[in-house]
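Review session, final week

We close the course with one last complete record, chosen because it touches almost every idea we covered. It is L-lysine decarboxylase, a protein from Orbus hercynius with 553 residues. Go through it on your own first, then we will talk.
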Amino acid sequence: MVGNNFELSQFSSFCYDFYGENTMNADVSILDSRLGLPLDHSSLNKHAQKCIADTFNAEHSFIVTNGMSTANKIVGIYACPAGSTIIVDRNCHKSIAHLMMMTNVTPIYLRPTRNAHGMLGGIPKAEYTKAHIESLVEKTANATWPVHAIITNSTHSGLFYNTNYIKRTLDVKSIHFDSAWVPYTHFHPIYQGKAGMSGSRVENKTIYETQSTRELLAACSPAAMIHIKGDVNERVFNQGYMMHSTTWPLASSEVTAAMICVAADEHLINQSIEQAINFRKEIDRINKESNSWFFNAWQPDNIEKIDCWPLNRDNNWHGFNHIDDDHMYLDPIKVTLLTPGIDVHGQLEDTGIPASLVAQFLDENGIIVEKTGHYSLLFLFRIDKTKSSTLLGTLMEFKRVYDANLKIRDVMPELYKKDPDFYHNMRIQQLAQGIHQLIKHHHLPELMYQALDELPVMEMTPYDAFQQVILGNVTECALKDISGKVSANMITPYPPGVPLIMPGEKVTADNQPIVSYLEILCEIGSHYPGFEADIHGVYENDNGEYVVKVLAQ
């Protein structure tokens, strides 16, 4: 206990030295009348939200102090009444699944496409049509015509939708665009028509858009925003807001509002776009001049024009077999780099460099990857030339280290510490090829395709499943034995970050690729310490066996 207190004391001193006295004094009382109360949207808070609404082309905007997950739940609590049916993007954030566990609704799912790298290409146009929604309602128990839809925009692979098509086509009262990664869409013309708040009102529909303020804008991590365009009962909506929000103000949100109002033009965002495009060009140049290998940027051949680049059927740089024209667009700020090992058709090559190894190397050098696939790395470009240069230099350093085939203990000390005996004499090429051959042996990309093809059977809604969890009607089950059982939890592997199994879904023989895919992800970690799979809903028990929670039968 003494040791813990000493460590806490050291940490406190560190925080004081780092932040200084003014930061510690900046926490203010909610009783300060000059600030107003966030829950009744008065005083400075009211003015900040009005400023944000005007700036983001919304009719109403709300500052959320508990993050994007809370923003999503606030919208859902209001727009998804108990007993209703809602449309859900299967590529949803886990907060949407949590919303469905809290609210007694019946979901019907729209499914995104994907390519060989596991990138999500969005939901095809046909899935939004009335005929397709009717077919989903007919085959879903207790489903009625949906009242609300939740769509992820942009996708986790940095692709925007033509939101005008979705707004016109989806026959629902309201649509919620979960736009966590893209709060900057109103600040540059290339995003026009690709965001929830783009354009004017849609007749007889209410459009919601939730955004994480910290992504390219200036705010602390918990800050988020809700934008609304269309009819909404503000008093009732605020009841849901109060359920999930704190009475304590978060000054950074108001500061952000002031900065946005002052600098609401395309200049700053344009800097980020230009920086990202310059980085893409440099990657392409180095790749072409390299005598051996280098990273590839996932992008069209011509990136000279500052734009959101369309995915269409006339070219195959994107790797999607079936793509709708005038539907999906790549955000230039979201840069995905491809590592060697797999071609555009999904064929695994004889040798490869799994992206997880590169991500580990970057992490040990202070660079965090936004999303790691099996052979892809996604970076979000912020307004910072120094970081761009650092990233490029670190990627070139990885190539040098890899080509020289240096020892793990010399170039990745943090990984080495996880199992010094295992990594004692191992070199980086041996590690890369070991993981690559394991992926190739089990046909992992192909399994990933199959795992996302056939959804499990919804035995009960996520809400009903969670009620059983609360009552304790669950049991532990080995992952390999999950077939025939109903999952109590959401099971989501990273990569690709798409829920494979929702609470209340029954895994059948048709879903064996899901089980096999999850087992292989776990196996990679058992072979190579430090590369354990990150799978929400799957954990290792005391016997070293991977298990899940299922409903008791």
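Two points worth writing down before the exam:
Residues 524 and 532 are 7 Å apart (CA to CA).
The radius of gyration is 24 Å.
Good luck, everyone.
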